[in-house]
Amino acid sequence: MGLSLIVGCSLAYISLLFVIAWWVDKHADQGKSLVSSPYVYALSLAVYCTAWTFFGSVGRATTGGLSFLGVYLGPSLLAPLWYMLLRKMILISKNQRITSIADFISARYGKNATIAVLVTLIAVLGIVPYISIQLKAVAFGINTLTHFGESPPPPPVHFWLDAGFWITIAMALFTAVFGTRKLDPNERHEGLVAAIAFESIVKLLAFLAVGIFVTFVIYGGFGDLFSKAIANPDTARLLSFEGTGTTPFTWNILCLLSLFAIILLPRQFHISVVENTSPRHVPKAMWVFPLYLLLINVFVLPIALAGKMTFGAAIDPDTFVISLPLSQGAGWLALAAFIGGFSAATSMVVVEATALSIMFSNHIVVPMLIKTRRFGGETSLVDGASRLLDIRRVSILLMLFLAYLYQKTVGNTYDLVSVGLISFTAVAQLAPAFIGGMYWKRATNQGAVAGLIVGFVLWAYCLPLPSMAKAGLLPGSFVENGLFGLSFLKPYALFGLSDLDPITHAAFWSLLFNTWLYAIVSINTKPSTLNLTQADLFVNIHKYIGGQEADVLKREAKVDELRRLLNRFLGEARTIGIFNEYQAMSGTSLSGQQVAQADLVNFAETHLAGAIGAASARLVMDSVAKEENITMDEVMRILEQTREAVEHGRLMEAKNTELKTLTLQLTAANEQLKNLDRLKADFITTVTHELRTPVTSIKSLSKIILDYSDELDAVRKQEYLQILVTESDRISRLINQVLDIEKIETNEAPLQIEHLDLSELVWHTATGISQLAAERGAQLHLSGTESPLPVMADRDRLVQVIVNLLSNAIKFCDTENGRVEVQVGRRGRMVVLTVRDNGAGIPPAMQRMIFDKFTQLHSPAKGKPQGTGLGLYITKTIVEKHGGSIRVESEPGKGAAFEVLLPLESAV
Amino acid sequence: MRTAKILIVDDEPNIVLAIEFLMQREGYKTEKAFDGLQALEMAAGFMPDIIILDVMMPGLNGFDVSRHIRRAPELEHCKIIFLTAKGTQRDKQTGYDSGAETYLIKPFDNDELVTVVQEMLAYG
Q1: Does the residue A542 lie in any domain?
Q2: Structural domain span for residue B18
Q3: Of A123, A163, A246, A753, whose CB has the highest number of CB atoms within 10 Å?
């Protein structure tokens, strides 16, 4: 097949891509997005499938059987988690105007420039081999098409005779034009995305076409092909796990590496996050993308088996996709297969180089130029936007040149997949800092730097350096004997771990040390304030959506300077747009000499970050913005705010519950107080009423005696005067008892506790009161007073209790045959005093109230009793103050028995 | 003119004693009751012209007694004078609402009570 035909077809294909991109971009400029669809998004994600997939999987399958699937299982396994992970990445990136994976990681660790550089270096150096295999694959494809069936052509003497060189140049130009058509602050390239999605369709169809051709045309379907493969001892081996030499550990590492790659590869991050138009597209991509991976892998094994059976070891298995159709004379299909592989390669190169150039220019070139004052300084006021684009274009050329160099020197000796996996292992080094940064607030920039460096060094030592030694670029002794002749430093058997293949071995050690150092250093270092703020922003992004970034620094700058700065990087039109947007948003108008406050500075910085990355934007902004001296107080406040926000919710809830409890308690207390108030008021009302009654009799009767003395006979007069005396007694008794209650209740008069004998006390009191009993016609019977009953009590109070109970009993006992029984004795550790009468008894309803204030018994027979209604209340209070209790037992008609229990002295 | 009949209701015998003296001195016929139920019984039999009524009594209180009497058609002409230690405005209102003509507060003035009774008998 002629070279001109192949080149012609390739050029036509690229032109088609240009047309698609141009057409979509034109629509995007008019505000109509043609790529804002979940299917386009899912298809563009398939940029994951490169020439490696297209050519290399088959090659890998001829030696490793199914192990080629590992790198597709990882992403498929991860896909269900995208809903959490990828969406969070997108939300954070939109919020922070993240433009690359380096930007993302450095922004997380306080916009740390060191980390940005480190990540960029790892990405660039790690990805170069990956790009190189795309170039190699295309060159292989062309060679296969032009020289099929002939002996491979000798390596060209001069590089300008090498097809690969010109392919590199073509790819570089193509990428430069595609990826840097304009400087978009969000790094969104709709045309590019559309072209990538289109390429995903092309490579899938091409591969399926070859697969169907091989399976159903060359062979009679899957059954035929596989039965022949099993019959052939050379290929039968590939159909079992054991025969391929792929251990379970290697499988796991492959899955892990590819799982990281799908989110961390610069091009994957670029397509899935930076170019994402809406987080709502993620759910659909979660099943469309794995489906795509499944489809593109269905025919890998059939093609590999068929190739092996057809060619044996005569032809490089990486070219089977083209060679097989050629061997059957199907030149058109071979050409289509080449275009498919070409499409896979170009899509990878374009996106990868674009993403890398963004990182390279934003995090390495621009900061360097800023530091050396070659860029953005006062002296160079040329249009910075176009200079930035030039830097990008040069970066792309540089990247591809490195890839070409790698392929020429090192890559030639390895198959496509092995080289690709070296890149995967490099990119996986970003995983701890990246994933940890999104979910672990405690992670610090020191931890990230330590992890990244050790991971990168181990990777370099175990993978690219030995391969460079093998290519003769380095002395090979360290590979065989270990560095400095130390055998535990052998790059393929580090620390004596020798049973693994180089990729698994390197991935294991580098990730282990990377993660370990990341965690240990993070735990042992203090994060900076900015780091803390950013950490919270990343980990708790959902809190911040829609809100502005909480900036720790209060900075101000002249509006003029700010405008000039933005002009330099973003161009006149865009700058005016930004300022207008700010004025509209804040409702202020900005004049040149005015001092821009922190929020405008931040606003400008966010937009600038879109063009040159967060770390660079901060650096640039620092050149014009003066930091105000922020006081310790303010720093503390900002720190507090971050923590408070988290604490706040929890605290609020706790406070709420607390408040509710408190309210209940207050209501109860208030109710109690009200009750007390009511009781007090009731008490006063009752006391005044009780006082008024005798006063009424006294007043009326004394007035009668005074006014109508002559009308009254001596007996009447005597009777009235006797009433005056009784009623006066009643008043003084009432006053005394009220004062008693006051004293007891307020503890005004503490009990005068002494050693007493209850028996003796009862005997004395009863004797004293027997006169009264006799007057009332009641008999008093004492029992149990023979033996002493020691108690600790206030003598006067205890006498009061005995008198109250006895006089009550005398008052209420039977009028005809009054009998009062007084009994003392022990019951366990208590002494008991029982006073029993043989009166009418107390109705059950009254028994509970009898000890309350102003409760009085009315007997129909005796009319109103001459009491105050306070006696039993006072009695009960006194008994309880002594640690005792009082109760009443009564049956109507059979008298009542009051029983007082007091602690025995020994028990006190 | 027939002799006016006064029913004195109070649970304090000494107060009843004093009022009884004052009323009898004016030449009225008196009856006594010491609680609410007793008062209702007496009122039905005695058919008094005036009831001098205490409020705080065991069992039925004075307000309830007044309401019962007001519901009895045969005691339509009967006047009720509250004589009580309960002296708040609200108590007074309750007293008048229950159907009383006059509300006096203890301790009372002998002459005042007599005058009130005289006028009530004379003018209705």
Answers
A1: no
A2: 5-123
A3: A123
Q: Per-residue pLDDT tens for A419-440?
A: 888 888 999 999 999 999 888 8
Nearest to A692 among B19, B22, B107 (CB): B107
Q: Which of A692, A727, A863 sits opposite B106 (nearest CB)?
A: A692
Contacts A708 to B, Cβ<8 Å: 25
- Domain presence at residue A538: no
Q: Are residues A602 and A734 in the same domain?
A: no
**How far apart are the CA of A883 and the nearest CA of chain B, in angstroms?**
35
Q: What CATH number is associated with residue A658? A: 1.10.287.130
pLDDT digits (tens, 9 = 90+) for A663-680: 888 888 888 888 778 777
User: Would an 8 Å CB–CB cutoff place B93 in contact with chain A?
Assistant: no
A225 contacts A316 by C-beta, under 8 angstroms = no
Sequence-distant (≥ 6) Cβ neighbours of residue A652 within 8 angstroms: none
- Give the pLDDT of residue A379: 39
Considering the domain architecture, whether residues A652 and A611 belong to the same structural domain is answered as: no
**Is A535 within a domain?**
no
Q: What digits encode the pLDDT tens for the residues A473-505?
A: 777 777 677 676 666 677 777 777 777 788 888
| A616 and A652, same domain (yes or no) | no
Q: Judge: B110–A707 Cβ closer than 8 Å, yes or no.
A: yes
Calpha distance A676→A689 (Å, rounded): 19
Decide if A700 and B15 are in contact by the 8 Å CB cutoff. Answer: yes
Contacts of A704 in chain B (CB under 8 A): 18, 21-22, 110
Sorted by sequence, the CB contacts under 8 Å of residue A710 that are 6+ apart come out as: none
Looking at the structure, tell me whether residues A829 and A861 fall in a common domain. Answer: yes
Q: Which of A696, A711, A858 is facing B107, going by the closest CB pair?
A: A696
Cβ distance A333 to A376 under 8 Å? no
Q: How is the beta sheet containing B5-9 ordered, strand by strand?
A: B29-33, B5-9, B50-53, B79-84, B102-105
pLDDT level of residue A565 (50, 70, 90 thresholds): confident
Q: Which domain holds residue A685?
A: 634-739
How many pairs of residues across A and B have Cβ atoms under 8 Å apart? 63
Q: Do A826 and A878 have their domain in common?
A: yes
Q: What total of structural domains would you count in chain A?
A: 4
Mark whether A275 and A371 lie in a shared domain: yes
Residue by residue, DSSP assigns A806-840 as: HHHHHHHS-SSSEEEEEEEEEETTEEEEEEEE-SS
Categorize the per-residue pLDDT at B43 as very low, low, confident or very high, splitting at 50, 70 and 90. Answer: very high
Q: Which of A132, A163, A133 is nearest to A147 (CA)?
A: A163
State pLDDT tens for residues A120-148: 999 998 898 888 888 888 888 888 888 77
Within-domain flag for A63? yes
- pLDDT of res. A221: 86
End-of-domain residue from the set A585, A601, A622: A622
Element (H, E) at A889: strand A885-890
- Using 50, 70 and 90 to split pLDDT, how confident is the model at A185? low
Q: Mean pLDDT throughout A25-42? A: 80
Asked if B85 and A703 come within 8 Å (Cβ–Cβ), the reply is no
Measured between beta carbons, the chain A residues lying within 8 angstroms of B17 are 697, 701, 720, 723
Is the same domain home to A694 and A841?
A: no
Q: pLDDT-based confidence at A648, cuts 50/70/90? A: low
Q: What is the ipTM of this complex?
A: 0.93
Closest residue on chain B to A697 (Cα): B15
Six-digit token pair at A734?
Answer: 């009432």
- Kindly state whether residues A553 and A505 are assigned to the same domain: no
Number of domains comprising chain B: 1
Answer whether A704 sits within 8 Å of B110, measured CB to CB.
yes
How many angstroms separate the CA atoms of A639 and A878, rounded? Answer: 62
